[in-house]
What does this fold into?
Amino acid sequence: MQIQMVTFSAAKDGNAPGEWQDGACGGVAADGSWARFLVLDGATTAYDPVRWVDQLVRSFAPPAGGSGGPGGSRLPRLEPAAMRAWFTEMQDQWAAEVRDFDSIIEERKFAEVGSFATLLGFDIYGLDGPEPYWRGVALGDTVLFHVRKGHLIAAFPPMGPDDFGTLPDGVHTSPASLERMTERLLTGGGTLEAGDFLFAATDAMAQWILRTIERGEAKVWDTLTTLAHPDVFARLIEDQRREQDSASRMKNDDVTLMRLRMLAGQPAYLLACR
It folds into this structure.
């Protein structure tokens, strides 16, 4: 089975595109048997969230066409013990890097607040066999939606539109958070079929999806499965942030949506947008 992947993003309204503080990446192993994907949401109030997100991305997910298996060097397995070891490694690396602070305030923020990001990571196994499946880990409110024939069959982590708050779980730079991160780490998975979609969305987008499902599931999946250009995505986000109904209005935050489509064979075409 093949994977068709596209990632859409938009910075918070009023910010430049370069101020986007999320992270997303994915890659299929060179032997075509498995793939790994990651979506992160950096905390705006944290110290240098872009740097923290970049560090996590570089360590967690292989580049497209990367070699090795999910147990390969430096790639954590998606199970609690291996993830705990990875959290520790990331915290140690963060603390060891030399920094030039712009001010005493920034130095205090680094020491007292640290950095933070919600995490959704998932592997897809069995791409070279008859029964592919996904397995994932999550900390926080970045959500994976598994959609089949226009219907949601799983959301991971399981959340409702009112479950999003200002203090989600996530990966923190402070060693004092290690036990909580390990305890709150969620695991999940499901089987895949040709034609299935997987959508990985950071909190503002995930909450909007769940609210829209309540009003009409078919509409949201029709919209998201047919998105074909970043400009169309940008207009969608802009429109939903300005929605007159406050109950359905999208939160003004950095937005990321990764879309994976499972294909029985190679896609007929490749669309590349910059």
About this structure: The chain has one domain: 2-263. Residues 67-73 have pLDDT under 50 and may be disordered. Residues 2-263 form a domain with the Phosphatase 2c; domain 1 fold (CATH 3.60.40.10). The chain has seven helices and eleven strands.
